[in-house]
Amino acid sequence: MARAAATKPKAQERPEGPPRVILLTGMESDRKHAEALLFLKQADPDFADFDAETLDGSHVKADQVLGAVGTVPFGSGKKVVVLRDTQQLDAEDQKRLAGGLDRIPPSGLLVLHTGSPIVEDGKTKRGTTVSTELANAVKKLGEVRDFALPKVEDLRGHLLQEARRLGKTLDQDALTLLSQLPADDVRHIGTELEKAALHAGDSPRISAADVEATLSRGPDDVIFKLCDAVGMRKSKEALAHVNMLFRGSNRPESVAPRTLVLLARQIRLVMQFRYLGEKKMAGRNAQPVSAQVAALLPADGAASIISNPRTSWMADKYVGQARNFTLPELEERLEKLLHADLTLKGVYPGGDSPQAVLQRLVIELC
C-alpha cells in the first residue's frame, strides 16, 4: 500500500478587505502614538469603553490579545485593540501571536504599537523590536508602517520647505540650530520653527537669534549648557546654569542626580576625545577611528558620536574642550564627581542642600 503523501500546513493568506493587523514600528514615537490613537477611533464612539481597548505588552499573553480582538464589538464599528510595547512580549508569546493573526475576524483590528528601538554601535539591540517571525506574519496578513526618523538632510529640507510655506527663508545658523533638536518629534521641531517665524515679524528671514529667543528649553537643555560651560571651564556661566536649574523647582532632590549623571558623562567624553585627539582620530585632518581603538571605548562614547552622521558635528566641540584639561586634571575631576555623588547620598557630610553640592562641584570641575 502506497504511503499517503504528507500534507503541508496551509499557508496563511492575507484576508480580503481592510487589514486586520497593523504593526507600527520605527524611531519616531510621537507620530506612532498619534497613529495608534487614530485607529482607536474606528470603534463606535457610543461603545468606546467596550470596543476600544489598550493592552500592555509587558503584562499580557498572546491568548489574551487574540481573545480581546476576537470579541464581537458592541457597536457598529470595529473592535480595536492597541497592544503597547509589543516588543516586550516574551519570545514564545510573540510566536503564538504570529500564528494566531489569521484568526482575527473582519470586525477586529489589532494595532501592534512598539517602543523606539535601541541602537548601539549601529545595530538594533535585541529585545527592543518585535521578533522577525511576528513582523513577517504581519507583512503577510496585514500592514507594517515604519515611522523612521528623517535623515539629517531630509530634516533640513523639510525645515526649509516649511519656512517657505510660512513666507520666510532660514539663515544657515538658524537651520543648524533647528536641525540639532531631537528628531524623534518632528512636530515639535515644526512648532519651534513657527515660533521663530513669528518672532522674525516682518523680516523675510529667520535668523539664529529668532530661534534662540523662542526655543523652548527644558531642564535637560539647561543641563547640557551647564556641561558645555564646564567643558569650557567657564565657572561663572556654569554657576548661572545651576541656579537656573533649581529656580522654581519644587523637587531639587530629583534635579541634582540627573545633573550629576550628565556631568560625569561630559567629563568621560572629554577624556575619550582627548585620547582620540592624541591618536589623530578626532579634530582637524583626523583619520577614521580604527576598530582596535573603537573597541577600547564605550559603545555609546566618543567613537559612536564620530561615526553617527547625526552627532558627528559634536566632535569638534569635544576636541576643543579636551584641550582645556590635562589627563591628570580629568582624572581628578572624576574623583570630584564621585565625592559629590556620595555627598548627595549622605555618605559624606554636606549634602543637605543639593544646589550647594552642585555649586561646589562645578567650581571644582571648571
**C-alpha termini separation:** 90 Å
Query: Could you say what the CATH architecture of the largest domain is?
Result: Up-down Bundle
How many separate domains? 3
Oligomeric status = single chain
Model description:
- The protein has 366 residues and is α/β, with parallel strands linked by helices.
- The protein has 3 domains: 21-146, P-loop containing nucleotide triphosphate hydrolases (Rossmann fold, 3-Layer(aba) Sandwich); 152-214, Orthogonal Bundle (Helicase, Ruva Protein, domain 3), CATH 1.10.8.60; 219-365, Zinc Finger, Delta Prime, domain 3.
- The chain is built from 17 helices and 9 strands.
- It has helices at 29-40, 48-51, 62-69, 91-100, 132-141, 152-165, 172-179, 186-200, 208-214, 219-231, 235-246, 252-278, 291-296, 302-307, 315-322, 327-344, 354-365; strands spanning 21-25, 52-56, 79-84, 108-113, 119-120, 123-124, 143-146, 169-170, 205-206.
- A 5-stranded parallel beta sheet has the order 2-3-4-1-7, with helices on both faces.
- Helix 4 (91-100) runs parallel beside helix 5 (132-141), helix 6 (152-165) packs across helix 7 and helix 10 (219-231) packs antiparallel against helix 11 (235-246).
- Residues 1-9 have low confidence and may be disordered.
